[in-house]
Amino acid sequence: MNTDEVQDYLDIIKRPMDYSTIVERLEQGAYASDLENISADGADAEMDRMEEVLFKVLCDVDQVHHNCFTYNLKNSAFYNAGVVQQNKWDAYFGKYVQLRLTETIKSAFDKFRLNCKEALSRLKHGQRFIKVKSGSGVNCRQYAVFDPDTKRIIKQYTSRASSRLAALALLSFGYQCEWDLTEQNAKTRVETARDPKKLLFGYQWLPTDDLKSGKFKMKEVAPHKMSSSATTTTVLILKEDTVSGTEIRGFESEESAYQDWMKERASSVAAADNNAEESNISEFVTNYVDGEAAINGIIYKRVLPHQDEVEPKCPESNESP
Asked: Is residue 315 part of a domain?
C-alpha cells in the first residue's frame, strides 16, 4: 500500500502488512532475529524459537486479510478481493499446515484470529464511512468512488484533494480514462464525475454525504443489459464472481471458457492434487457450465436468451386449408 497516495491508510491501519513483506522477512531471517515481545500477539511463553517464528508468520498472513477488511467497505471490490484471497489461504492452511501445528501454536493462533474477528465485529457493518478528524474544515469533505453498475462503494477518501491524487495515480498506473486528465484539470474532473454521464475510470466520484443521503443521479440501466465487462452479442458463457455477484467477462465458445477455467484451476489450492479429475473440456462443461461447481469463488454459466429476444413463432391457425 502506497501511503503517499492513500493518505488516510495509517490513520486506520495500525499494523500494515503485505505478502511481499512476509516473503522478504522470511528470506532475510527477520522473523528469527526479531527480538520484540510477541506476547501481545497471543504467543505462549512455552513456545520454542521455531514455534515463535511460525506463529508470527501465520499471524502476519492473517493480518493482511484483517487489514483489508478493516480499511475497505464491506462488499466493495477491494473487500471482495480480500475475501477470495482469504478463502484461498484458508484452503491451503487447512490442507497443508493446520494438522502439522503443535497444540501450543494452534491455541495461540486461534486466539489471534478470535481477536481479529472481534475487532471486525465492532465495526459498523455496511456503514464503514471514514470519520473526518475534528477541525479538519470544509476542505476535507469526504469523497467516495461509486460503481454505477453494481451500486457499490469501491473506495473512500478523506478529502477532495486525496481523491484527486488517487485519480492521477490511476492514470499513472496505466488505467484507461474517459477524459484528458492532467494535474491542472483533475480537480474539475473529479467534481464533474458525480454525473453518471461523465464517469471517471468507469466510476462516479461523489461527496460521501451526498451518497449517504441519496442526493445524486443514478445511471439509467437498459432492461436486459449485461454488465460492460461481459457485453457481447455472441457471448455463450459468462464468468461470474460469486462473492460480489459481478460478471467478470464473457466467452464466445466452450473452448475459450475452458482455457480460462484451466488458468483458474492452476491457481486453486483445492484443485491442485486433483490432476485426474475435471481435466478435460467435457468434464468442465458438465460440472461447471451445466452444473453448479465453482472454483476460486468463480462460476461459469451458460447465457440463455431473454424472452423478448427469442424469435416468436407463428400462431397456429384453426382454419381449415
From this structure: no
Q: Please, what's the b/e burial string for 255-278 (b: 16 or more CB within 10 A of its CB; e: otherwise)?
A: eebbebbeebbeebbbbeeeeeeb
pLDDT in tens, 184-227: 898 899 999 989 888 998 888 988 888 777 778 887 655 444 44
Q: What is the C-alpha separation between 44 and 206, in angstroms, rounded?
A: 48
The secondary structure element, H or E, covering residue 60 is: helix 49-71
User: Are 64 and 18 in contact, with CB atoms under 8 Å apart?
Assistant: yes
> What is d(CA 155, CA 202) in angstroms, rounded to the nearest whole number?
13
Q: What is the pLDDT of residues 42-58, one digit of tens each?
A: 555 678 888 899 999 99
Say if CB 58 and CB 109 are below 8 A apart: yes
Measured distance CA(80)–CA(76) in Å, rounded: 6
Contacts of the segment 215-221: beta carbons below 8 A, 24+ positions apart: 218/148, 219/148, 219/149, 220/196, 221/149
- How many whole angstroms separate alpha carbon 3 and alpha carbon 11? 10
Cα 12 from Cα 81, distance rounded (Å): 19
Whether residue 85 is found in the same domain as residue 155? no
65 inside domain: yes
Name the residue with cell 480537480: 187
Query: Rounded to whole angstroms, how far apart are CA atoms 259 and 257?
Result: 5
Same domain, yes or no, for 241 and 283?
yes
What is the phi/psi pair of residue 174, to 5°? 100, 5
101 and 74 share one domain: yes
CA distance 179 to 65: 34
- C-alpha cell, 43: 504467543
In a domain, 133, yes or no: no
Of 84-88, 132-136, 172-176, 279-283, the poorest mean pLDDT is in: 132-136
Within a domain: 254: yes
Domain count for the chain: 3
Residue 93 domain boundaries:
9-121
